Amino acid sequence: MAEKDPQTQTKTDAEVIEEADRLYEACKPLELYEFLLQHKDSNNEEVLWRLCRAIRDVAQMNSTLAARKKELTYEALEHAKRCLEINEQNYASHKWFAICISEVGDFEGTKKKISNAYVIRDHFQKAIDLNPMDATSRHLMGLWCFTFAEMPWYQRKIAAVIFGSPPTSTYEEALEHFKKGEEISPGFYSKNLLMLGRTYLKVNDKEQARVYLNKLLEYDCKKDEDKRALGEAKQHLKGL
Question: What is the pTM (predicted TM-score) of this model?
Fold first, then answer.
């Protein structure tokens, strides 16, 4: 059997990526997932991280049942592992591995989630180092910082047992990452606007919190998670 021409293979990957991006921009998560599933054995990390993203988008849909969401989350992690195996110099490989490890932790309990904290942080940092202009990586690092800044005392005790010196962060650190994401790509993600609002509330800056929460009122909500972010923003605004 003749070997595939590398140029043909590259062109095929490029076409897959182009179609995947078209479906993503059109907000057709189920169609995108089914399309990329046909290419799950690809050896191109650009195809595979897009599959991870598509899987997550389906998992985040309100219509996705809890058991199916769990299946999808573990499925995404396997593809994310392959992304890293194929190319660990691609920022997206690190970003999606960290996202998937974090979301799997939601199904494995607090202790397991905390035990992966440094791994998650380090992969987000690697993604930022490889591509400082990726707004989503900045948002995710901000979310990591926010999570550990507000960690309740009982979880801190678990973290202390696991690490001795548990992960720590501050709301100010979280703010810097969220703000950087917004600076790179204004309005790129509904949840970044929400987290800016929430974090400003944590540091008692109600004026700035109101600015970002109000921006969500004008946000073009295309996904269920956008609508959830909008709903949460409205609740916070009622208290201001």
Answer: 0.88
